[in-house]
Amino acid sequence: MKFPSRIVALSLFALAASATAGEPPQPRDDFPQFIVPGQEAPMARLQELFRLHHDGAFTGTTLWDAWLPHATLWAATGEKPAAEPARSKYRGVFLARPIDAEGYISMQQHRGLAHSEGWPFPTFQQAGGVGWYFSTADEAYGVGLYQLKPLTNTDGWEIEGAEVAGFSPDRGLDLRVNADVVTVTTPPFTCATLSAPFIRLEWAARGLGEDAKPSVSWLLNGEKEWRTERHAAFDRLSDSAGLRFANIPLYKQAGYDGTLTRLKFRFDQAKGATLTLKSLISAIDSRHPITNVNFIRGAAEYFSWTTDLPFLRSNIGKLREALRFALREFGVEKHHLVRVPWVGHEGTSGLAFGTDGKKTLRVGRGVGNNYWDLLPFGGDDALATIYLYDALRAFAAIEREAAAHPEWTIPADDRPFEADALVKLAEQVRARACETFWNDETGRFVGWRDRDGRAYDYGFVFVNTEAVAYGLATDAQAKRIYDWLDGRRVVAGDTSQGADIYHWRFGPRSTTRRNVETYVWAWSAPESIPWGSQVQDGGGVLGFTYFDLMARLRTLGPDDAWRRLREVIAWFGEVQAEGGYRAYYAKPGRGTLQGGGPPGGLGFDNEFMESVLVPQVMLYGFLGVEPRPGGLRLNPRLPSDWPSLTVTRIHAQGHVLDVAAFPDEVRLTARVADGSEFLLWPPDGRWRIADAASAETGPLKLRFRPGRTIICRRVKD
């Protein structure tokens, strides 16, 4: 009697498990498919994950330039297959990306309360700074956080040479100038210079003289007289410029140290002009050292997928200037790594602890440098160095192609980059990074070294998986990293060890060692948040699973990467069966979600747009696709139980192809063909197009027509 009951119970359990996992939706023919014979259900589930995140995978913010285009520039969707929506969006973004006079590429996040071209925070309020707004139009962030209200008078201000013409809700304070020189002096205040490396003015002007040189002067604590030699100039605005930000770097001025107490703005050649002042704040340097290289990586990938020559002709100058700035500003050719010289980016914590354990906030210190914006990456920055390494190689490929194709008529440069020199520099960066950032005791890369040389190692999983995935880590380092992540060795002192590193199932934790002492000062009570309930302290972000999968493929091979991917797919099936991320994680004990406002430990949706990266392991990993101008390189790496892999609707150049890989054969079927020659770089060895007379080792030159399949076979000796 017991045995039948047991059998029934087991059968019911199996049915319940099946129901919990649910059935993936049927693949749609208007979206790329991943086809592996015998693996239809997991492939359908992975396609579902891709569809879920694809349409929202766009932003004009530079932070995501190397990730979202990577996932969307190839995916031909719709009844008439094409990746044009994503291509058109990113083409426009990259062409319009602002670059300042020094060469810094703007972050282009929403309006913030710090440097206008940087991250929105740390805010001047968090820094004990000062700010005045004559208009709060478009200031949703500041109004929402601090209930900013516009000033309606100039009480406490001193204005000479102009009269108040009015207050505009949309523009701010309008001044009508009646003298050759106008000065505008703020009310008295106190603000540490450390909290005000920049003074940010949003203003407009009509009628300033062509040679006008606006400037700002300042008083420090205890001073009463303005020093004529103490001023910093900023750019004049033309009549047509409208409202613009001036980020004035006072930190570069000699003797700028202490406590600010007043500011005076001077506008010359101004008689008859109209000046508009919208806002004035002291600003933390919230720039990130990764914007320039991310822009290069994203734009280079766009060109590699499209061979859009008008785009490259228009943007090559900006790309070169962006790289020059990164190399110069961060001392790359001298140090062979990214050394961040900015105020607040020294790599030291904004939290200090006395011998009695009492915490002190080091206001102005520990400013973020990348996606992980609470952590004080800086000083010698490992993550920025990894991204620089990737950008150098990507841009070297662009310069090499431009030199090899004079018929492209890519504009020349008076300070040209040589492709071979960039490759050499990339290898120097790689060697220095592997030495500087490697912690031999823990067998992994640290996040950064501060200006005093101190290394910070909280088990930064994302630093290590990206170092491996981008090919920066040596083979020996990669092996030690995965011995750690897979629990074959344990790092003493880590909070998370062994199997617990993958506690979240969809991927590894972001860090493995509890951090309650190393943050930007504004994140002042990290100890109040439990381990794993903050994405930057033991939590996890779905999108970074992609780098784990790609790193596994490179280090441990396709079978291991497929094993891990199966676990991710199983997790996603359970999540979908319970109604999606929000419903699934609403149940206690499963973790806390961040996204759309509240902080939490896990990131899947809303601002976590990089979740779209995970399915890309099928294209870039197992199929081994590398876009190149004019075509594709393929280097498939199939798990042992996959007879083949097909990825459909790949929009490469002007063609839309289904690409199938077999052990010694590649098949390409054209859904759309534009009539141009298509270059295919096959895996190593000699390959022959079926029915062709001879084999080739270089790129195969293919001609497609819609519906045609071209078969390429490896020639065996």
Contiguous runs where pLDDT drops below 50 for at least 5 residues:
1-20
Examine the secondary-structure arrangement and name the CATH architecture of the largest domain: Alpha/alpha barrel
Lateral arrangement of strands in the main beta sheet: 1-26-27-28-32-30
How many individual helices?
A: 16
Question: How many domain modules?
Answer: 3
Task: State the secondary-structure class.
Answer: alpha+beta
Mean pLDDT across residues = 95
Q: In whole angstroms, how far apart are the ends?
A: 65 Å
CATH fold node name of the largest domain: Glycosyltransferase
- Topology, number of strands: 32
Q: According to CATH, what is the class of the largest domain?
A: Mainly Alpha
Largest beta sheet, briefly?
A: 6 strands, antiparallel
Roughly how many Å is the radius of gyration? 28 Å
**What fraction, in percent, of the residue positions are helical?**
25-40%
The general outline is globular
Question: How would you characterize the overall build of this protein?
Answer:
The chain has 717 residues and is of the alpha+beta class. It has three domains: 86-97 and 288-618, Alpha/alpha barrel (Glycosyltransferase), CATH 1.50.10; 131-283, Sandwich (Jelly Rolls); 623-717, Maltose phosphorylase, domain 3 (Sandwich), CATH 2.60.420.10. 28% of the residues lie in helices and 19% in strands. The chain contains 16 helices and 32 strands. The strands form eight sheets. A six-stranded antiparallel β-sheet has the order 1-26-27-28-32-30. Strand 17 and strand 18 form a beta hairpin. Helix 11 packs antiparallel against helix 12 (475-485) and helix 11 (461-469) packs across helix 13. The longest helix is centred in the middle third of the chain and has 23 residues, at 382-404. The radius of gyration is 28 Å and the shape is globular. It comes from Paludisphaera borealis. Residues 626-671 form the Glycoside hydrolase family 65 C-terminal domain. One of its GO terms (biological process) is carbohydrate metabolic process.
